[in-house]
Amino acid sequence: MLPPRQQPRPGGLQTSLSLVISPDAYGFPNPQERGSTSDQARDSPSESASSRETWPTSDALMGKKLVKEKENGYAEHSVVRSMSNLDKISLRDIARERVDVIADRMRNLPDEYLEKFKHELRVILEGSGGSQHRDEFMFLQRLVNSKGELTDGILCLTHRTQLEILVAIKTGIQAFLHPSVSLSQASLIDIFLYKRCRNIACGSVLPAEECSCEICSKKNGFCNLCMCVICNKFDFEVNTCRWIGCDLCSHWTHTDCAISNGQIGMGPSVKIGSSSAEMLFRCHACSRTSELLGWVKDVFQHCAPSWDAEAFVRELDFVRRIFQRSEDARGRKLYWKCEELVEKLKGGVSDPMICKVILSFFQDLDVDPSKSQDNDDGGRPIAPLEAFGKIADVVQEAIRKMEAVAEEKLRLVKKARLSVEACDQELKDKAREVSMLKMERQKKKQQIDDIESIVRLKQAEAEMFDKKAAEARREAERLQQITLAKTNKLEEDYTNRYLKQRLCEAEAEKQYLIEKMKLQESSRASQSSAGGSDPSQIMYSKIQDLIKNM
Q1: Strands 264-268 and 252-254
Q2: For residue 476, is pLDDT > 90?
Q3: pLDDT, tens digit, for every residue of 487-512?
Q4: What is the pLDDT of residue 77?
């Protein structure tokens, strides 16, 4: 087995990037998987800290940009506003249009506008927008992959920012857009054309070390120095059991990928002269096997002294999952020991003590008294008592194994019982929730019935009030008619009485005038007997004519 995995290029860029699978190897990547470069969907309980994104976030970059805007008096906004609509381009234009046309247009754009493109693509690659950003990235990648004219000569004509954007879309790696990453144009072109490893910390020319195996020759962009042969991803984990290397072809595989893909299992021992079975790793690249117990021992002997408690828990968990299905005695002992040490670490045992215990365990595991005695005996005859003793030792060893298996079965039964009890409790809780929901439903139904009865009552009351209102309207109309008739009659009576009164007054005045006329006539007669005509007599005759006319 290979020694613990080291950095491919220690002198290269030492940083953590968030990288995705090669699009040509397994289709388009899922932008939501960019937070980790290993296949975290493979039931791995641990996650490498170095596989997480540690580049400056977009918010920090925008904050610096705002400070710069304030210092410059927002001059860049006026520059962007002054550009014509013909000069404005989008990420889709960069991915769709001809390279030389976009390069000419980008040379006329200010640096602030170019930085906006990179920031927009970084936001899409981060996947914070969910399915919308994922669909946009896949669409951009399809546009780039559909352009068959992108060769060395064509890509040499590109603008620097344009080339960085094309490489970031092609690989799905936002590190190429970061200002602190400055690769030459030739390196970016080689990465785009799968001639160089997309891992910036590696940067090996492909195929790495001129490997001619099927995987290196057929997987576009695959690097056997830093990538997993199964998931085609890479990270920067070193001195760990997270990676398994093949003894023969030196290709590397994620432990999680090997377990999920069935590359780890029982098989005949690779040691010469041994017929026993042990846990083996079958390389996906060359299909040859390597033993795992010695590899785990080498990793712990070389790296365990520098691990902290968190690293111990992570590494012991890797070993526990590797030997979980082991059937040989040493593999089972290692599996149980890992579980025991994990529990002790969770209980607060110090790191140096755990390191001493595991290293001592590996030393004791290498000692096999029965094999050394068999080798010393050679081929000499064995005495009956000695044979009986050896038989007794074998029987005791078998009993110990059976007891260990029984303990394991008992532990599994206990675990299963606890799971059953938890399920029963959960069923009781669910039944209680169902009964409560039924009661709540019944209560709601009763409330609905009460409300419906109230509604019906209110409707009946409304109908009754409508009927009373109609009757009141009819009574008001009848009273109005009666009032009108009485008013007309009163007016008519008043008019008759008024006319009658006026007639009586006229009769009285007429009688008065007649009496007056008679009086005047008698006085005039007396005067006429005494003298001639008088003007008053003439006036009297006129009044008399007037009365006659009336």
Answers
A1: unpaired
A2: yes
A3: 999 999 999 999 999 999 988 888 88
A4: 40
Q: 264-275: per-residue pLDDT in tens?
A: 888 877 665 556
Pairing of the two strands 289-291 and 277-282: antiparallel
Residue 356 phi/psi, 5-degree rounding, is -65, -40
Place of tokens 């039924």: 438
Q: Which of 127, 115, 114 is nearest to 62 (CA)?
A: 115
DSSP designation for 2: P
Which residue in 53, 22, 414, 52 sits closest to 216, CA to CA?
22
**Whether pTM exceeds 0.70:** no
Alpha-carbon distance of 541 to 523, in angstroms, equals 14
> What is the Cα 100 distance to its own chain's centre?
38
Triad 258, 126, 142: Cα angle to 5° = 80
Cβ atoms < 10 Å from Cβ of 318: 24
State how far Cα 542 lies from the chain centre: 122
Phi first, then psi: what are they for 22, rounded to 5°? Answer: -65, 130
Are 340 and 349 spatial neighbours (Cβ–Cβ below 8 Å)? no
Q: How far is CA 431 from the centre of its chain?
A: 32
**For the chain, percent of residues with pLDDT exceeding 90:** 14
- What DSSP designation does 196 have? B
Give Cα 14 distance to the centre of its chain: 30
The tokens of 416 are what?
């299963």
CB-based contact 514:544 (threshold 8 Å) = no
Which helix (H) or strand (E) segment is 243 a member of?
strand 243-245
Residue bearing tokens 């940067």: 203
Give the containing element (helix H, strand E) for 162.
Answer: helix 160-171
Amino acid at 328: D
Length of the chain: 550
Concatenating the DSSP letter of every residue in 72-130 gives TTSHHHHHHHTS-TTT---HHHHHHS-HHHHHHHHTTS-HHHHHHHHHHHHHHHHTTTT
Supply 116's token pair.
């906006």
Cα separation, 388 vs 383, whole angstroms: 9
CA-based nearest residue to 255, from 284, 277, 276, 278: 284
Q: How many CB atoms within 10 Å of residue 178? A: 19
Phi-psi region of 262 (alpha: psi -120 to 50; beta: other; left: phi over 0): left
**Cα separations (Å) of 348 from 351, 352, 354, 358, 517?**
9, 12, 11, 16, 149
Note every long-range contact of 431-434, with CB atoms under 8 Å and residues 24 or more positions apart, other chains counting.
Answer: none
Are the C-beta atoms of residues 226 and 199 closer than 8 Å to each other? yes
